[in-house]
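Dear H.,

Thanks for agreeing to be a second pair of eyes. The structure we're designing against is below in token form, covering all 543 positions.
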């Protein structure tokens, strides 16, 4: 197959897939392919290599350029064949995803013999680059993942996750961190942040210049944050109900009591947003008006279109997980954070896998320090019981949006009973939470909602501090029925969306009061300095 990708042999799918392509469209693709191939063969040096994998000068040599150009041509038409398959949408997405994975893996840049930059490095280093690459490879095999950054460059609490605060509550599921005020006065209502339990919290507190936590403290909020425990085998039977009741609702209760206020403001990020919304539905069923406003960052409530993740989730896959780790066959286990992390990396294989394979192993280089990628590699496990419930009832059966269908913490879940004002943020290029799916939350939640769309992806779109003046965002205070209608009338604004959010949140903070120098209260005493104990727990390769 690799020979075909580089020699001009017409690309093809498996025979059963080719049979599903309408004959007229198949003929069009084949005609386009042979026309472009003839053009390439006649004048290979006229081809412009726009792909960044082939941007180096070494790729401009005639033979290397021909290899790269023929690969790109074959890739283009192989993907065209995959897109042309006439089948149901879910099968089509699976075929396209599998084809993309194969195409990316077979890039000539990924192999010593066909990467001229690698060959130049071997010659210039007298083979030292290959030796270094083998050392890097053996080290990564021990870790069970491809290294994306210099992990030795970071230490929690020293140069990452360093906003000053204290752990004021701890149970088996989470630690609650209260951060030190940076203003003389603060809003009377505390502000609680609930990150995803699938990753560590410090994506919201990387370094001072890109910390969401620090920014919100600087805006005058008394910030509390949930730091989830990294589960081990003893927690395999922990459920979604536990994360909602003993996690989110308990955190709301503690923050409210420490703040000596009837209500607080709550933010949920990704899965944290799904947990928070479920918790608010439970509180609504109990007639507890504990929350003044809700913020959802890149969160799914309606899982009708879950994007590329839908490729991995079907009934047979969920049943397999339920039987192996979810307790259905009497066996509970853990969903490995390493497996989850590697899966997410292969959603963007060129950026998060093959780029590092080439640099680390073939060229023998060590990756530079990068705070976001350090966080990305600091994986967490998930309890099997919780993970399987989440897969079945959200991604597979989409039952969270069905009024009264699910019972959580003893209460029937009705998301439409959430009537607090909500700020709903999505990222335009998010491959985990498609922005149009996030927009559906505007019709599910029944309060006064605002939707804002940021540029970039799932993480980079969120972590966009104003001082850097990067990217842009879209704003439209109207909420039409469709996401496309919203975007067509939205205003494109340069810079970070954070100030927009801070201005929206301000009225829900209540009056300003003198900032307290104390952490916790008589009931909830300061236990240890932030970042606390749970965030430092690492997983091993064997789960």
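And this is the sequence the design step returned. I haven't edited it by hand at all.
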């Amino acid at each position: 197959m690799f020979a075909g990708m580089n020699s001009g042999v017409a690309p093809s799918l498996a025979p059963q897939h080719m049979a599903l392509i309408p004959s007229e469209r198949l003929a069009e693709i084949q005609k386009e392919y042979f026309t472009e191939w003839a053009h390439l063969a006649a004048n290979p040096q006229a081809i412009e290599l726009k792909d960044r994998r082939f941007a180096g000068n070494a790729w401009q040599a005639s033979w290397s350029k021909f290899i790269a150009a023929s690969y790109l041509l074959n890739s283009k038409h192989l993907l065209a064949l995959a897109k042309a398959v006439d089948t149901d949408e879910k099968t089509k997405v699976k075929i396209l995803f599998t084809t993309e994975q194969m195409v990316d893996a077979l890039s000539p840049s990924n192999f010593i013999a066909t990467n001229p930059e690698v060959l130049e490095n071997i010659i210039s280093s007298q083979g030292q680059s290959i030796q270094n690459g083998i050392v890097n490879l053996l080290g990564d095999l021990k870790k069970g993942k491809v290294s994306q950054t210099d992990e030795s460059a970071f230490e929690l609490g020293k140069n990452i996750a360093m906003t000053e605060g204290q752990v004021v509550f701890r149970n088996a599921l989470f630690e609650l961190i209260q951060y030190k005020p940076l203003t003389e006065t603060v809003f009377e209502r505390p502000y609680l942040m609930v990150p995803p339990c699938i990753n560590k919290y410090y994506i919201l507190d990387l370094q001072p210049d890109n910390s969401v936590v620090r920014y919100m403290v600087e805006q005058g909020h008394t910030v509390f944050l949930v730091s989830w425990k990294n589960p081990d085998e003893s927690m395999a039977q922990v459920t979604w109900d536990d994360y909602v009741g003993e996690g989110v609702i308990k955190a709301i209760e503690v923050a409210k009591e420490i703040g000596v206020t009837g209500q607080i403001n709550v933010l949920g990020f990704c899965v944290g947003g799904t947990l928070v919304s479920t918790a608010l539905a439970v509180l609504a069923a109990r007639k507890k008006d504990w929350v003044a406003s809700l913020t959802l960052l890149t969160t799914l409530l309606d899982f009708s279109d879950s994007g590329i993740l839908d490729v991995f989730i079907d009934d047979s896959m969920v049943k397999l997980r339920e039987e192996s780790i979810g307790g259905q066959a009497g066996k509970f286990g853990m969903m490995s954070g390493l497996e989850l992390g590697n899966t997410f990396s292969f959603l963007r294989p060129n950026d998060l896998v093959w780029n590092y394979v080439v640099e680390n192993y073939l060229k023998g280089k060590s990756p530079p320090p990068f705070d976001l990628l350090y966080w990305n590699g600091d994986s967490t496990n998930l309890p099997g019981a919780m993970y399987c419930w989440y897969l079945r009832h959200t991604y597979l059966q989409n039952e969270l949006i069905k009024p009264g269908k699910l019972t959580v913490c003893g209460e029937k879940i009705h998301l439409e009973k959430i009537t607090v004002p909500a700020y709903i943020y999505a990222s335009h290029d998010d491959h985990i939470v498609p922005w149009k799916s996030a927009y559906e939350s505007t019709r599910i939640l029944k309060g006064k909602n605002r939707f804002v769309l940021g540029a970039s992806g799932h993480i980079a779109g969120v972590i966009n501090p104003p001082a850097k003046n990067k990217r842009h965002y879209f704003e439209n205070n109207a909420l039409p029925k469709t996401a496309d209608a919203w975007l067509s009338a939205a205003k494109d604004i340069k810079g970070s969306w954070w100030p927009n959010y801070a201005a929206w949140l301000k009225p829900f903070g209540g009056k300003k009061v003198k900032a307290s120098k104390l952490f916790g209260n008589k009931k909830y005493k300061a236990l240890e300095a932030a970042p606390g104990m749970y965030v430092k727990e690492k997983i091993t390769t064997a789960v």
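Two observations from my side: Residues 1-11 have pLDDT under 50 and may be disordered. The chain has 19 helices and 17 strands.

Warmly,
E.
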